[in-house]
Amino acid sequence: MVSEREQVLSTLARKIHGEIAGRIIDRLIKVGEATDEQLSQALGIEIGVIRRTLNALYESRLVKYRRVRDVDQGWYLYYWRLTDDFPTRVLEERRRKALEILRRRLEYEEGNSFFYCPSCRFKYSFDEVVDYMFRCPNCGSDLEALDNGVAVEKLKRAIRILEELKFEQ
Ligand SMILES: [Zn+2]
Q1: Ligand 1 centroid from CA 137, angstroms
Q2: Among residues 29, 61, 85, which one ends one of the domains?
Q3: pLDDT (0 to 100) of residue 127
Q4: Domains in the chain: how many in total?
Q5: d(Cα 49, Cα 94) in Å, to the nearest integer?
Q6: Same domain, yes or no, for 38 and 109?
């Protein structure tokens, strides 16, 4: 039975680091703990790719490791497992990044007037429109001014929601 926390970790891993990361997390959920070599064998994925992905997952605090000295060989083995924490740090980072993108987009929308082509629906900035002499470069139709008030409102709402979300105390 996969817990809710495990499911969140698996989804996050896939969304942020891709399909291989998701498969690694699913495998760790199943077996509890594994070395990079065990993961490589079980999933049929090259060890270099496994190591890179594990490092990325570690950076995001989605996995942890336990280091054990191999007495015969004299080197360390790393046993990887899921983090015990709820992935607040990674969610907080995503929240900040999303906010940054939305704020930049809002600044752009508010600072520019836009035009569109009534036939092909392409959108152009004011600077572009001046270059094209107010004609669509694609079909030659006259361009019309676009009201981006709806887009601006949507952006503002999304920003407010994200600002109120808090993952870390
Ligand atoms: Zn056009």
Answers
A1: 7
A2: 85
A3: 86
A4: 2
A5: 24
A6: no
Residue 169 within a domain: no
Tell me the CATH number at 71: 1.10.10.10
User: 83-106: per-residue pLDDT in tens?
Assistant: 887 777 778 888 888 899 999 999
| Ligand 1: centre distance to CA 115 (Å) | 11
**Confidence check: pLDDT of 169 > 60:** no
How far apart, in Å, are the Cα atoms of 39 and each of 6, 8, 47, 65, 99?
18, 21, 8, 13, 35
Q: What's the pLDDT tens digit per position in 18-38?
A: 999 999 999 999 999 999 999
How far apart CA 99 and CA 87 sit, in angstroms, is 19
Q: What is the mean pLDDT of the chain?
A: 90
Domain that holds residue 118: 89-164
Same domain, 100 and 77: no
Query: Ligand 1 centre and the CA of 142: distance in Å?
Result: 8
In 10 A of CB 53, how many CB atoms? 24
Rounded distance from Cα 123 to ligand 1 centre (Å): 9
Round to whole Å and give the CA distance between 34 and 64. 11
53 and 123 fall within a common domain: no
Query: 1 CA distance to ligand 1 centroid (A)?
Result: 55
- Same domain, yes or no: 57 and 122: no
Res 168: pLDDT: 62
